[in-house]
Amino acid sequence: MILFAEKADELKNYTCSQNAFLPHHVTIPLSQEYNTSCNPLVRTGELVTEGQIIAASDKPGKISVHASIPGVVEEIVECQCPNGKTEKAVKIRLQGSFDFLGRQIPSRPIDTLSAQEIQEHIFDSGIINTFNVKKPVNLGNQINNFSGQTLVIRLFDDDPSCITDRLLTKFYFERMMKACGYLLKALGRNNIVFIYNSKLTPKTLFDPWMTETTDFLDVNSNEYPAGLEAKIIDAFNKNVKAGKASKRNKTNKNTDIVLTKKDLFIDASTLYEVYKCVAKKIPSINRLVHVSGNCLKSSCFLNIKIGTTIRDIISQIGGMIKTPKMIIINGRLRGSNAASLDMPITRYVKSISIVSGKNTCDSKIYDCINCGNCRAVCKQNVFPDVIYNHVTNFNIYSLENNGKNQDVEELLKTLVAKCVDCGTCNMACPSRLPLTQIINMLRDDYNV
């Protein structure tokens, strides 16, 4: 399903990333990843330095939050986050000198670091893997629990309405390739697969880093949901099974890589964070964010301090020319609607789009009209309307599968497991039913 025009021309409008202005205050949420939170380690009135750990989790794994600016802790507050949840946050007033900003920090060669040292740097930096923007997770924990064989790198956003990862690939490709080396060493693996669009990223760029265990999957990044994990696994393995290897390596032999859910999938944004934390030893205190929308005077690709509010960012780029109707975080298909311009940037924010009423639709939820649109667009045959009605109306349906009656709960579990979380059912529903959200709730309940 192609939903957006080709992005190649849009990329030409950007020649570099820019540093956002330093904010006078930052509000740093203590929950920076999916279903986890940290406890504050600082108190009101305390002085903090740039990059200092200000919160940590008491659960297994080195989950931590860092101060993005030096200053004074004004208070521990509650704030609404881009994911829609209300979390505790540390509010810091800018004061003092910087430890990283404005300094020339030489890159550390990979040969000087052991696998354990790389893992520790990734843990200590608090990098969040944003491959799935709906469920951002701690990269250090993923590496620690890794049981697969392959590192999979997607060089475009899963949501085709976003261009953040394309911009990163355009501006920082060489740094990202160095980060691949760090990750492979940390994982103790050699297999790597790049998911890319040859119209946007020429394959010749990979030549200096080509090995016998490198492979590729060339996809149309605007054909949704081509960038989701389940779709990548399916498309790549079908090519392998059909003998259509995505490349031949320098030895002229096809690679024998087969992808599974156990492999590590990361995006360009996460890869760039790995470069910063390992090569430069800078913790995750900034985000490169694409800011756009028809309400703004201009769009830009900004390097923003974590905890900076959307309002501060807008004032830097000249303010607004229209009254906003929606503040869309991380894309129209996969993202969420921010409730306020005072919402802070977190480690999982990749893009912000501020749009007027002409670009939005009614968000009120109506009753299901049994139109069947959600079933028609679902390529996984999940029957989103049936699942939704079962959960919300507490009805027990007599469903059939291959002509045989099955236990309803077992059938629901089977259907939920097939969902790839693309959200196309939500887009097709004229009643605005939260179909994908209900399915995700059941997925958590069934642990599938």
Number of helices: 12
Average pLDDT taken over every residue: 87
Please give the largest β-sheet. 6 strands, mixed
* Gross geometry: globular
Helix content: 25-40%
Radius of gyration: 22 Å
By DSSP, the count of extended strands is 21
* Major sheet: arrangement of strands: 1-16-15-19-17-18
Strand content: 15-25%
Structural class call reads: alpha/beta
User: How far is the first residue's CA from the last residue's CA?
Assistant: 26 Å
- Detail the poorly predicted runs: 247-253, 395-405
Report what the structure shows.
The chain has twelve helices and 21 strands. With 448 residues, the chain is α/β, with parallel strands linked by helices. The strands form six sheets. Strands 1-16-15-19-17-18 form a six-stranded mixed β-sheet, covered by helices on one side. A hairpin with a 7-residue loop joins strand 5 and strand 6. Mean pLDDT is 87; it is low at 247-253 and 395-405.
Name a few traits of the molecule.
four-stranded antiparallel beta sheet, globular, alpha/beta, 448 residues, single chain, 20% strand
Provide a concise account of the structure shown.
The chain has twelve helices and 21 strands.
SSE inventory with pairings:
Blueprint: H1 8-11, E1 18-19, E2 25-29, E3 39-40, E4 47-48, E5 53-56, E6 64-66, E7 71-80, E8 86-94, H2 115-125, E9 128-129, E10 137-138, H3 139-144, E11 150-154, H4 164-187, E12 191-196, E13 214-218, H5 229-241, E14 264-267, H6 268-279, E15 286-292, E16 300-305, H7 310-316, E17 326-329, E18 336-338, E19 351-355, H8 373-377, H9 384-393, E20 400-401, E21 404-405, H10 408-418, H11 424-428, H12 435-446
Parallel strand pairs: 1-16, 11-12, 11-14, 12-13, 15-19
Antiparallel strand pairs: 2-8, 3-5, 4-7, 5-6, 7-8, 9-10, 15-16, 17-18, 17-19, 20-21
Helix pairs in contact: 2-4, 4-6, 9-12
